[in-house]
């Protein structure tokens, strides 16, 4: 019985691994743009290009961008209830006392409208040609 369970588990794991490899090869990656806006300091915007794999989350694209571009840095913390919470971008951190935070906005590639997703960086799945806007602002 135990060997049958192990065989089923290994088969499922192999299937997931192979399908993940095939999905990435089949669909490849897609480009997105990410712009850093500091609405408080009126600093110049900084725009970066990143690739995201098919059905990949924004956090993954941001991690990949941070690994490949020394000019882009960010930190986040895991909230037990809400998942990854963006704390700082390029050395600028939100502050509860100052009522500042990083807001996630998306200018969609479909019609160009700017939306505020109802999920954060750990759950948002960008579409090809989405323009991600990380906006430092006050609440």
Automatic annotation (TrEMBL):
Residues 1-20 form the signal peptide. InterPro entries: Cobalamin_Transport, Transcobalamin-like_C. Keywords: Signal. GO terms for cellular component: extracellular space. It holds the Pfam family DUF4430. One of its GO terms (biological process) is cobalamin transport. Residues 67-138 form the Transcobalamin-like C-terminal domain. It comes from the Eukaryota. GO terms for molecular function: cobalamin binding. This is Transcobalamin-like C-terminal domain-containing protein. It comes from Salmo trutta.
């Amino acid at each position: 019985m135990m060997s049958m369970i192990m065989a089923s588990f290994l088969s499922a794991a192999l299937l997931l691994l192979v399908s993940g490899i095939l999905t990435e090869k089949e669909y490849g990656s897609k480009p997105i743009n990410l712009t850093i806006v500091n609405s408080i300091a009126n600093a110049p915007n900084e725009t970066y290009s990143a690739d995201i794999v098919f059905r990949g989350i924004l956090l993954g694209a941001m991690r990949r961008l941070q690994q490949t571009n020394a000019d882009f840095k960010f930190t986040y913390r895991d909230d037990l209830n809400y998942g990854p919470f963006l704390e700082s971008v390029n050395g600028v951190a939100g502050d509860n006392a100052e009522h500042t935070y990083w807001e996630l906005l998306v200018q969609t590639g479909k019609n160009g409208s700017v939306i505020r997703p109802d999920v954060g960086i750990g759950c948002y799945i960008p579409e090809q040609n989405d323009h991600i806007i990380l906006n430092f602002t006050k609440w």
